[in-house]
């Protein structure tokens, strides 16, 4: 199985499937934008509106966190991850940490 085949769901149950719990899995990343984009974001902060550089940063961080979550599940021999959730935090004005976490399961 490849990590792209690992089912990731925010629900507790996978319809029509029975499974045994393997354990908790995580995918973590910390991302930052370059200085030029930070300056542009600072100007945008003055006038208001969406700061696209930070939206891109969070989207990239989310995708990396899910990819690492899937790899962690694959390494444990899982078929799926249930109850997946995200957590994020700012480390500084230009760095974000994103964690994806859930429960790895093996289908019976």
Task: Report on this structure.
Pfam families: YbjQ_1. Belongs to the UPF0145 family. InterPro entries: UPF0145_dom_sf, UPF0145_YbjQ-like. Helices cover 34% and strands 39% of the residues. By secondary structure, the chain is α+β, with helices and mostly antiparallel strands. The chain has a single domain, classed as Hypothetical protein apc22750. Chain B (Translation Initiation Factor IF3, 2-Layer Sandwich), CATH 3.30.110. The protein has a 4-stranded mixed β-sheet. It is elongated, with a radius of gyration of 17 Å. The model has no long low-confidence stretch (mean pLDDT 87).
Keywords:
2 helices, four-stranded mixed β-sheet
Count of the domains: 1
Would you count the extended β strands for me? 4
CATH homologous superfamily - what is it?
Answer: Hypothetical protein apc22750. Chain B
Q: Judging from the principal axes of the Cα atoms, what is the shape? A: elongated
Residue share in β-strands: 35-45%
Strand order of the largest sheet: 1-3-4-2
SSE run: EEHHEE
What are the low-pLDDT stretches, counting only 5+ consecutive residues below 50?
Answer: none
**Major sheet size, sense and barrel closure:** 4 strands, mixed
CATH topology: Translation Initiation Factor IF3
Task: Compute the average pLDDT.
Answer: 87
Instruction: Report the C-alpha radius of gyration, rounded.
Output: 17 Å
CATH level 1 name: Alpha Beta
Distance between the termini: 16 Å
Separate helix tally? 2
User: Which secondary-structure class do the elements indicate?
Assistant: alpha+beta
Helix content, binned percent: 25-40%
Q: What is the CATH architecture descriptor?
A: 2-Layer Sandwich
């Amino acid at each position: 199985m490849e990590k792209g085949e690992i089912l990731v769901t925010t629900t507790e149950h996978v319809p029509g499937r029975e499974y045994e719990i393997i354990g908790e899995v995580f995918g973590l990343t910390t991302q930052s934008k370059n200085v030029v984009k930070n300056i542009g974001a600072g100007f945008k902060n003055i006038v208001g509106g969406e700061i696209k550089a930070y939206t891109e940063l969070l989207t990239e961080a989310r995708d990396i966190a899910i990819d690492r979550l899937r790899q962690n599940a694959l390494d444990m021999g899982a078929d799926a991850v249930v109850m997946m959730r995200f957590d994020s935090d700012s480390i500084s004005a230009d760095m974000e940490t994103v964690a994806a976490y859930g429960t790895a399961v093996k289908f019976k």
